Amino acid sequence: NAGVTQTPKFRVLKTGQSMTLLCAQDMNHEYMYWYRQDPGMGLRLIHYSVGEGTTAKGEVPDGYNVSRLKKQNFLLGLESAAPSQTSVYFCASSKDGGGNTEAFFGQGTRLTVV
Amino acid sequence: AQRVTQPEKLLSVFKGAPVELKCNYSYSGSPELFWYVQYSRQRLQLLLRHISRESIKGFTADLNKGETSFHLKKPFAQEEDSAMYYCALKGGSEKLVFGKGTKLTVNP
Lengths: 114, 108
Known about the structure:
The structure holds two protein chains of two kinds.
Chain A: E1 4-7, E2 10-13, E3 19-25, E4 31-38, E5 42-49, E6 56-57, E7 65-67, E8 73-78, E9 87-94, E10 103-105, E11 109-113
Parallel strand pairs in A: 2-11
Antiparallel strand pairs in A: 1-3, 3-8, 4-5, 4-9, 5-6, 7-8, 9-10, 9-11
Chain B: E1 3-5, E2 10-14, E3 19-21, E4 24-26, E5 32-38, E6 45-49, E7 60-61, E8 72-74, E9 83-90, E10 96-98, E11 102-107
């Protein structure tokens, strides 16, 4: 059981380049989230989805876009990367929005923008 | 608005000492609170959820609605407890919001 898998694990981009991070979950979860983790800032929510075909903005959505065309996949796009987007990105999924619901995390993607 | 505050970035204790990681929240409704932990080179994982009122790895956390707190406690810290700890809140919306985290170091 793979759980939540993020692709790629590492990436170096030049300023202005674009890329897409893929998050895949095999638990049939409805909810999916993208976070960024920065030193001293904790985990900040970028975008999230409550089901296939839906997306919503989190705390820090600027500079990112997302898509949830298939229930198992949640894509995070950077159209024009900036050094400020250097971070570790985590994807998570949960069964639903209930109070007892555990979120399962991917292993993270370390992105460096130079 | 949902907000989670963890006032301590770093916390260092000796093995066998009690440990308390503080978490305060801001939310007008009934919150759902969690503690997640990230051990070195591992992915984030759930430690506790307030609704379950459970003790995991010797850790407990009680929701205090009057003080809007959900502090994590353990009476006798172990070296393997060294990790990054995040308090998280789900406030009735779909969003799961995290605090900035506290890095716990348990010294031998």
